[in-house]
Write a sequence for this structure.
């Protein structure tokens, strides 16, 4: 029976230059492999060791990249190892099969959202009217499913984020702050639902997962075993659960440790 490995990408497996957390002396820093280029510039990295481990994992398990990124943003990433047959994009809104969105899955997700939570337009309007242009750099809608802001983190009022979270909660939405992005995501839009669907299709009897943010909590809880790095929203909240391992490593070395743990558990 196959093992299914569903892993968040940004700040879990892959890291921007700002998120690498290279705290060791320069001469002892790990060699890095660039896995994403955007507008002709290198954007995301993993260690060369993690890249080799991920290649081995792709041969040993059903590896499913699982991300809040849009399909277009996901397709910029060039991960080492065999091309994954399945990928989860837009926080579960798109289930990719051989690089193409499964239309039936997407239709079932959008039908659920229409029934269970406030419409995207209402949330978007609230963000536009309450967020201060002084600290907002961009307003974005992703795949007509959820909204996010790109902000100047040091200028962002904590109180505003808390108020937004309460406002969203009452409308069936969740708020997550990740780096310079604030996401507002409908509660029924989950990575876990898409992971369960891939497990059903592949007949996987063991599911493994990793993630660093609030939007990964449902994925970790749905898996048989999960790991979270020593940084990110979940670490800041000291979030844990019985089958979850909280790793001490932070930054790109946490990514390497996570792939190592996946491989160990698979074998």
């Amino acid at each position: 029976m196959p093992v299914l490995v569903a892993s968040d990408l940004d700040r879990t497996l892959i890291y921007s230059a700002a998120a690498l957390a290279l705290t060791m002396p320069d001469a002892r820093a790990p060699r890095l492999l660039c896995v994403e280029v955007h507008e002709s510039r290198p954007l995301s990295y993993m260690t060369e060791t993690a890249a080799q481990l991920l290649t081995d994992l792709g041969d040993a398990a059903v590896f499913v990249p699982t991300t809040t990124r849009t399909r277009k943003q996901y397709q910029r990433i060039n991960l080492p190892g065999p091309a994954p047959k399945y990928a989860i994009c837009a926080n579960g809104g798109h289930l990719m099969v051989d690089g193409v969105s499964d239309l039936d899955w997407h239709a079932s997700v959008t039908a659920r959202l229409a029934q269970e939570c406030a419409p995207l337009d209402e949330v978007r309007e609230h963000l536009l009217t309450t967020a201060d242009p002084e600290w907002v750099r961009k307003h974005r809608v992703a795949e007509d499913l959820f909204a996010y802001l790109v902000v100047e983190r040091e200028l962002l009022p904590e109180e505003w984020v808390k108020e937004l979270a309460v406002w969203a909660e009452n409308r069936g939405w969740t708020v997550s702050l990740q780096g310079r992005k604030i996401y507002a995501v409908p509660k029924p839009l989950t990575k876990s639902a898409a992971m369960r669907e891939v497990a059903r299709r592949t007949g996987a009897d063991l599911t493994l997962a990793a993630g660093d943010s609030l939007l990964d909590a449902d994925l970790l809880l749905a898996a048989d075993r999960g790991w979270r790095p020593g940084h990110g929203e979940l670490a800041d909240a000291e979030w844990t659960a019985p089958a979850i391992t909280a790793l001490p490593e932070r930054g790109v070395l946490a990514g390497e440790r996570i792939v190592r743990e996946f491989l160990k558990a698979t074998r």
